[in-house]
Amino acid sequence: MPFALFVAAFFLLFLKSPDALTYPQFWAEDGAVFFKQQLGEVFPQVFVPYAGYLHVGPRLIAWLASHFSYSISPLIFNVSALCIDAACITYAALWASRIFGLYVVLISFFVIPTAGDIFGSITNIQWFLQFFLVLALLAPNWSCSNAKIANKLIYIPVLIAALSGPFSTLLAAFTIAIYMLKGMKRSGVNFLETRNFSVITDASAYLWSIFRKDVLVVIFIGGAIQVAAMLSNEVRTPEASMALSLDQIKQLGLFIWPEHPYVSIVNRWFTPLHVLLLGIFVTTTVSCLISAYKRPRPYIFLCVFLLMYGAIQPVMAYSKQQANHTLAATSHYFYFWGVVSLFIIGRFLTSHVSPVRIPLFFVCFGVYIYMASIKPNYFRRAPLPNLYWENYAQRIAAGEKNVLIPLNPFSWHFVANAK
Prior knowledge:
The chain has helices spanning 2-16, 19-22, 29-38, 56-65, 73-100, 102-111, 126-137, 147-153, 155-162, 167-187, 195-210, 213-232, 246-251, 261-267, 272-294, 298-321, 335-350, 357-374, 389-397; strands at residues 403-407, 412-416. The longest helix has 28 residues, at 73-100. The chain has 19 helices and two strands. The radius of gyration is 22 Å and the shape is globular.
């Protein structure tokens, strides 16, 4: 079953971004950061931060690719990214199958509208690794013939995931808050003296009871290292230094390559589709919060935890960058929140047959088909413009200095110097 799920997830990821394998190219930081900074280096650059934190997973992949011809580096990057993404989806499907339904979980990762940049890119594996990180923290919902071995081996991928993005710090902060609220219940502290606070402490006590404390220790170690990296480096994505103006492109004699639809999707964030998506995410979250108050039970507590963890991400991204694209509901900042919302909606629609749910299911299906027909780029990543990486790879291999290499999305670039 796990291998079949992995193959299915990999195939669906390929359908979402087929050009990742048919003519592989670097996407943004794949080339401008991870390939460039590994170029000519013997050891993996795992301790070199970018945007203020460490990216151990992408750095290890870049190091692996450095042992092969430069011409196939993008292919190694993309295959590795698709494998990691598929593995995370497989883990999530296995973990949540008894709660939300196996097929609901599997499909949710693919039907949600996105800008498409997260598929087949080592830069964005962190958005899938966070699912593994969060769910690994929770007690597993399946049995394993080698459970003891599996429980120990999980520490290694958890640590790599914790050191491959900022999510270990966010998750650590959430668990600290939950522990404090749980402690208030145990000590009898209820400073609000209301049912609201009682529900919060009950939820916190339940969540703390299903946390794997051994995995939590690993997450805290990774989170502490990431915090140290953030405190000693600038927590900013230096995109401006990697993007050329039109005047610079003309002065350098570069051709003007097409702009990928990703750019317009995230920059035009206040569209009917974005508003609809945001409305779905907010409605799902508010409905679960109301349900937790009126009918508190473990399933709802878990849903609220996952939804709140996802909902805080675009808020934090906007507070950090102050950029409108962080508000686009199709951006990767909303991906966790959106996928979990679909988990919950899918379970509601498929849990049992009723006169209300059957027509509601077909209405949702009809709206989805309509949106997919008029906005195909939101459901399947448009092919990246072919920038003929092989030509640049040959120049680098020949030892040419200061090779200016264009990247997707439009105007990104980097200068390569073989050592």
